[in-house]
Amino acid sequence: MPEGDTIYRSARALQRAIGGKLCTGFETGLAPLARVNDDTPLAGRTIEKVESRGKWLLVHFSGDLILVTHMLMSGSWHLYRTGEKWWMGRDRMRAAIFTADFQALAFNVPVAEFHTARSLARYSQIPKLGIDALSDDYTVERGVQSLRTYGAEHPEAEIAVVLLNQRVIAGLGNVYKSEVAFAAGVNPFRAMSTITQQELEVMAEVSQKWLKVNVLDGSSATGRDGIVTYSGNRRTTGASDRAERLWVYGRQGQECRRCGALVQMRKQGEQARSTYWCPGCQPWVATPGQSTEAPVGRMLKLTGPRRKVGC
Ligand SMILES: [Zn+2]
User: Measured in angstroms, how far is the CA atom of residue 258 from the centroid of ligand 1?
Assistant: First the structure.
């Protein structure tokens, strides 16, 4: 699943290439979009702004028309120079926006709709998104507040499922979910009612920090011409070695980089998403507040992967 930082990067790359430019053409394989384009053509409108909101990507056209797409599991936006060959087949193209210099193409997006500012405001899903960890108005306090509010209403909800819930904090995907819980020393299966204020603060803080780091990391990759890449090179450990990029995600059965225990994986939540954790660094806590006495609850000292010496 594209993570929030991926969609943020896509939106930023699209904004740089086609933001403020004149739309010279529009193509789509979706009948509802085609009908709008027939009635009120996009060609001739200005592309006022491209933005991301959590996992949604919005393209604002002049004349109060907004193309709204959601990536879900398979969708992606590609950017090509005019005349460049597409990397995916036309049969998978859902929407194509043309300017004098660029082609912006949405492939396999399961949701693609036109909205006006008014219908967007009424649209049930986007306004309900939680605070976007990449937005300028995100603060640790607001992140914590959002988690606390949800936890008060859903005390039994498991923390990693809540981290993935885009209506609580928007932007975290399945990779960061496991990494953020690890950073706070929180077992991902703990109920919200057991999570301490301090743990919430750590998770709210690293959520923002790591998403931002990965957005910055990607700036050079998306700055070049051509395709917006989704090479899974996000990292949280600070290590530049590809094999040491992440603390626990995708590392089932391998030694924890911090304590050496074997990283575990279990499917979690209604969607049975893979959750990775270290049983040593993220011990099970079943009782509210218990964790304040345990050696968890503050950010684990994450100083980079342990190096094996002499072997
Ligand atoms: Zn560990």
Answer: 5
